[in-house]
Design goal:
The structure holds two protein chains of two kinds. By secondary structure, chain A is mainly alpha-helical. Helix content of chain A is 79%, strand content 2%. The two termini of chain A are 20 Å apart.
Amino acid sequence: MSVAPDLISGFIAFILTLLVFSYLLGDNPFFRAAIYLFVGVSAGYIAAVAWYQVLWPELISPLLFGSPGERILLTIPLVLGLLLLTKIIPPLSKIGTPAVAFLVGVGAAIAVGGAVLGTIFPQTGATINAFDLQAAAAQDVSPAEQIFGASILLVGTISTLVYFQFGARRFSGETIRRSRLVEGIALVGRIFIAITFGVLFAGVYAAALTALIERLTFLWTYLGSF
Amino acid sequence: MRRLFAPAIAIAIGLVVLLGYFLPDYTTIAELRIQIVHWAVILAGVAVLVGVFNLFFVHIEKIRKKQKGSVYSLLLIAALFATFILGLALGPDHSIMRSLFDAVILPVETSLMAILAVTLVYASMRLTRRRSDLMAIIFIITALIILLGTAPLPLFEIPMVGDIIHAWIVNVPAAAGARGILLGVALGTLMTGLRILFGADRPYGGK
């Protein structure tokens, strides 16, 4: 029973892979058709997942079958959700603004909390802890080697941050520019950024190469199955 | 008064959630934060539906006005409608939905990633032709060292590249740059979030 659906899905996957690969010859109608089909199926799939994973179990089902306390609490997201749905209809879209404001407020607070507790504190702590010589000794790393690495880490982190500092002032008779000191530190920061992007590029390229090999193997295996 | 309603909601809700983060010992605030975040998750689910319906109506409009490329829009609408109805009727875990995922979403995503292998080589060649400054050279050399250090070579291993140079670049200068970028992004996020919580920025449409 499961052979027929597998055969059909394998055939569709084979055709779609070829259509997407046709982009290597330039943008063409076959590639566009594959992409529009992909967007349509993905959007429909995501909507179904949102219904089954979030809206039904967290809102609709408790409203229909939950306790009176649950129902009262869930009237707030129900009303906000209905307000949000008015965003689909342009003449009524202003009614949905409070629901968007609710989402933005929660999102901003989570972003602030995440930035402080999830990035700024841990990353600053890790930069300081790189100078921990006791931890280095436990890993059989010499103090000189540890201090050298930690110093480069510190210089790299600060100079990269300085590179993104775009505050500048107008010098008499000259164009607006940053001070010489900031320009010098920013240049060092650019070198670290170039190295970081080089490493990221290599990582993305290795992943893309793996995907290419997987797809070519799929095409070869599918053709070999006949 | 009506103009202040939306900013008041955003600021009040945001401050309660933020207090819940930083005062976890105050049970009432922490519980309120969990409740508000739970409501936000439900609203995010509704927002997904709003986004999908908006995509649907945008392409319906393109078809109605017979704009260029409306044939593709028809394909998108048919695929979206069929998948959504099937998904609602069967559920996303049904075998037919999984087959649909394996037949369309997975191969197209992987193929797009695969053609990236070719386009990235083309882009890096263009970079070296157009901008052969110090930064481009550092970028290309770093990428080559990392690739040579990661990939197993068929006949020989380049001494020191795989075990020492590759590891040092990843753990020291690249980590430093990434840390600086991460801290910069976090500081930017902090400023943007605080501007919203103070009501200076109102991306929800309030004046």
